[in-house]
Write a structure and sequence with these properties.
The protein has one domain: Alpha-Beta Complex (tt1808, chain A), CATH 3.90.1570.10. It is about 30% helix and about 35% strand. It has helices at about 5-10, 15-20, 45-60, 90-95, 115, 120-130; strands spanning about 30, 35-40, 65-70, 70-75, 80, 85-90, 105-110, 135-140, 145-155, 155-165, 170-175, 180.
Length: about 190
């Protein structure tokens, strides 16, 4: 059935696709530029995310926020992301359902061998997170062994980049965090 027929029948393809991925059995998935992708991180990937989560957790609590990897919707696009870490105000997180990138304080993506060739985290997600207003985007590039913090989002991307810095560099997370992130254990 074509998209034109779907619209005539009152079915919104974006909404149907996002509904479907939320109700899939057997694991979590995200939609990246219209392609359904499984979310199945390896243990070394999880260890890198956990190293960051452990360092920011005390400040996250002080800010009355939570960390997680819940769904982020990008309405008006065929994108539905599951970030490796998102920092979200607790009152917003308790609202249920998917959030929007502009409701986060920080989004962290850790590259994997499975997506390194496609530049999903380096290019696609960076552009989309900026377009949808995520204030801070931290890219942990395990293949390049570097970290980059992007800030000042806009429709055309982030206007500021701090990095790439090699693993082992201390990276300043700006307000509201105001902490240094030790990247030596990533």
């Amino acid at each position: 059935m074509s998209a034109a027929v779907d619209y005539e029948m009152g079915v919104d393809p974006e909404r149907a696709l996002k509904y479907a991925v939320q109700h899939m059995r057997g694991g979590r998935v995200e939609i990246i530029e219209g392609a359904i992708e499984p979310v199945s991180p390896t243990w070394d990937h999880e260890a890198a995310a956990e190293a960051i989560r452990d360092q920011i957790k005390p400040r996250v609590r002080e800010l009355d926020c939570v960390t997680g990897s819940g769904n982020l919707d990008l309405p008006g696009s065929a994108n539905w992301y599951v970030p490796d870490i998102a920092v979200v105000p607790l009152d917003i997180a308790k609202g249920g359902g998917a959030l929007l990138p502009d409701q986060t304080l920080l989004v962290v993506e850790v590259t994997s061998e499975s997506n390194a060739d496609t530049d999903t985290d380096r290019v696609v997600k960076r552009r989309r997170y900026a377009e949808y207003g995520a204030p801070l985007y931290l890219l942990v590039d395990r293949m390049e062994r570097s970290v980059t913090l992007f800030s000042d989002p806009g429709r055309l991307g982030y206007t500021k980049a701090d990095g790439p810095h090699p693993f082992g560099t201390r990276l300043q997370l700006p307000a509201p965090f105001g902490i240094d992130l030790d990247t030596s254990s990533l």
